[in-house]
Specification:
Helix content: 10-25%
Number of strands: 27
Largest sheet: 7 strands, mixed
Strand order of the largest sheet: 5-4-1-6-11-8-12
CATH superfamily of the largest domain: Spore Coat Polysaccharide Biosynthesis Protein SpsA, Chain A
Shape: elongated
CATH architecture of the largest domain: Alpha-Beta Complex
Distance between the termini: 57 Å
Number of domains: 2
CATH class of the largest domain: Alpha Beta
Number of helices: 7
């Protein structure tokens, strides 16, 4: 079994953080987003994990090589022409194998073995409140019968979440090659949804699989929401001497917090030092120093120094702010 993970995007909606890091390496709940995808994949013992790379590819490769021992291949995407183009690059050298596809900027709480055993072709779905923002699936009699990318008038609220399984790779390769060769674009990009729709028209039957939890990490607001969900479901930091902890809170064991009020909905990554501060609804990156600050609804990168007064911040790596 092969796994394909597209991670080429520049993450423009998460600037300034993605000026210095690719989006899959941004931290949420104290860990890089990509680690939440790869840790469950390790348990599948895949033959190969193929990363379709582009923006800051060297950082992604270094992270994977340092932290994981599975066979990893890095396929440069070249031009950023959309997910359909990226996956065409990712699968072009796969022969006679089944393929699991996961998008590199979303976190799915799902038993992957159960997902892959649901059928020969499986599509991960989740009911959402705002279906016009997503690719949408229409189902009938236990099959996916229609797909539409970000429709103005959605037929259902079942969002395509970026988790796919193909027992046979050839129908996927054929659909992707044909789509790229046609030059067809939807909303300015070569859309994977169009390739899937072509497979359905040609008789491929996709089984819909609704996941329990799906977390989006595409912009600041959804990062903070995902952070809250993840620290609620994992081992939280219960108490720190001299501090008030308002759960849910996660403080990395190698971080230090002194005389501060932390929470709710706060994660603090390794190597950070927080003193005399009040922080709520925020993500604090690694090796960051915060002193005498009040922060709320903030996304703070790595290697940042903050000293001063109350703020709502969205600041990237290696920044220093001192307020009188």
């Amino acid at each position: 079994m092969r796994v394909v993970i597209p991670v080429a995007g520049a993450g423009t909606r998460l600037r300034p953080h993605t000026h210095s890091l690719p989006k899959p390496l941004l931290h949420v709940a104290g860990r890089p987003i990509l680690s939440y995808l790869l840790d469950p994949i390790v348990r599948l013992n895949p033959d190969e994990v193929i990363f379709v790379t582009g923006y800051r590819a060297e950082q992604l490769e270094a992270f994977v090589r340092e932290n994981y021992s599975f066979k990893a291949t890095f396929a440069p995407q070249g031009e950023l022409l959309g997910l359909g183009y990226a996956l065409n690059v990712g699968v072009e050298n796969i022969v006679d194998d089944d393929v699991l596809v996961l998008l590199g900027d979303t976190i799915v709480d799902c038993d992957l073995k159960s997902f892959m055993s649901a059928g020969d072709f499986v599509l991960g779905l989740k009911a959402v409140d705002d279906p016009h923002r997503f690719g949408i699936a229409v189902t009938k009699n236990g099959k996916v019968v229609d797909l539409e990318e970000k429709p103005a008038d959605p037929k259902t609220n079942l969002a395509i979440i970026g988790l796919y399984y193909f027992k046979k790779v050839e129908p996927l390769k054929t659909a992707l090659r044909s789509l790229v060769a046609s030059g067809k674009v939807t909303r300015g990009e070569i859309q994977f949804t169009d390739a899937l729709q072509d497979m359905i028209r040609k008789g491929v039957e996709f089984v819909p699989y609704e996941v329990e939890e799906w977390f989006d990490c595409g912009k600041k607001e959804t990062m903070l929401t995902t952070n809250r969900h993840l620290i609620t479901s994992r081992n939280q930091t219960k108490a720190l001497e001299g501090c008030v902890m308002v759960p849910p809170v996660y403080v990395h064991p190698e971080a230090r917090v002194v005389q501060s009020v932390i929470g709710p909905n706060v994660s603090i990554s390794e190597g950070s030092v927080i003193t005399d501060s009040v922080i709520s609804n925020s993500i604090i990156g690694a090796r960051t120093t915060i002193d005498k600050m009040t922060l709320d609804d903030s996304l703070v990168g790595h290697d940042v120094v903050l000293k001063g007064k109350s703020q709502i911040l969205n600041i990237g790596d290696s920044t220093e702010i001192t307020s009188g």
